[in-house]
Amino acid sequence: MWLSIETPEHMIDAIQNLSIRGAPLLGLAGIYGLYVSAKCSTTFSQFLVYSQKIRNARPTAVNLSKMVDRILERYTSITDLGILQDLLLREAFHYEKELEEESNLISTFGATLIETNDSILTHCNTGSLATLGLGTALGVIKQSYFQGKNISVFFTETRPLLQGARLTSYELWKSEIPATMIIESSVGFVMQNKLVNKVIVGADRIAVNGDTANKIGTYMIAVLAKENKIPFYIAAPCSTFDKKIQSGKDIMIEYRSGNELSPMFEENQQNIINPAFDITPIEFISGFITEKGILKQPDL
Ligand code: MRU
Q: What is the C-alpha separation between 49 and 122, in angstroms, rounded?
């Protein structure tokens, strides 16, 4: 199904309802968001108001605000909306290619960590649907499989919006990679029973000290990995590193409606919290797989 987005309001809605999601893809949505904003504005100040709304549509994945800020800064002297539209469209096409190349490089670097007979656990969706190209964490898995390594994959359902059950399962199936889905609460069980020996997940924002925000449940998986002596890797492009944030405690976490947990709680939302992300402290992370190579903490 194709979604045609023609207005900034529609772009904001698509970002907030997760029709477009995943940190790298949100960066691209930011540029297209600026383009539709320029197209739908009658004055430059209206364009700026839309731009800020797009920038702040989701707070945790840094790629969205970073891309909007970067592009606005680049064209700060241009106030002609027609000229801006051309430039923004060109930027978007260019960034599409960049994203694809980045995720393919991440996949190739990450695959060097994977050995035949590895069993890899991943969380949420970090494939082509979140990044273009092969993906980040899921890209590493795909690339290893395409290289002929005999690997097995476990992936989480990813409560409450089921990015694993709906998206990761689809991508694994399309790539013909045999994989097993589990609920998040089974992660301890599969680790204790030695069904996985590596974890690779993506990231939404990485602080200067290496603390990492990612889909809710990631911290729990990282703690269990450490307890079970299983290496835990983050795969993400350099655009997900945030030089302005020193540590995880400064990363803003998005809280979503309690409705997403179950519509039957609609009347009772004050008793629900639904954080979309959590923070994994650096001490649980074995390394960062980026398009520039694999980094340990001191290299950050
Ligand atoms: O709420 P989402 O679906 O946008 O969250 C995405 C994630 O947290 C992913 O796990 C991911 O690691 C970042 S995108 C490759």
A: 38
Residue 128 pLDDT? 97
* Tens digit of each residue's pLDDT (9 = 90 or more) over 126-141: 999 999 999 999 999 9
Angle between helices 81-111 and 23-40 (to 10 degrees): 170
Using one digit for the tens of pLDDT, what is the confidence trace for 204-249? 999 999 999 999 999 999 999 999 999 999 999 999 999 999 999 9
Ligand 1, pocket-test mutation among 102, 106, 123, 125, most atoms within 8 A of CB: 125
Q: Where are the beta strands (DSSP E) in the chain?
A: 119-122, 152-156, 179-182, 198-201, 205-206, 212-215, 232-235, 277-280, 287-290, 293-295
Phi, psi of 260 (to 5 degrees): -70, -25
Distance 22 CA to ligand 1 centre (A): 4
Question: What percentage of residues in the chain have a pLDDT greater than 90?
Answer: 93
Q: State the pLDDT at residue 299.
A: 63
- From the CA of 26, give the closest atom in ligand 1: 4
Pocket test residue of 215, 255, 277 for ligand 1, highest count of atoms within 8 A of CB:
215
DSSP state of 190: H
The HSE-up count of residue 235 (CA atoms within 13 Å, CB side) is 35
Dihedral, 191, 155, 241, 52 alpha carbons, nearest 10: -140
Tell me how far CA of residue 253 lies from CA of 34, 136, 160, 212, 273, in angstroms.
24, 21, 16, 11, 12
- pTM listed for this prediction: 0.95
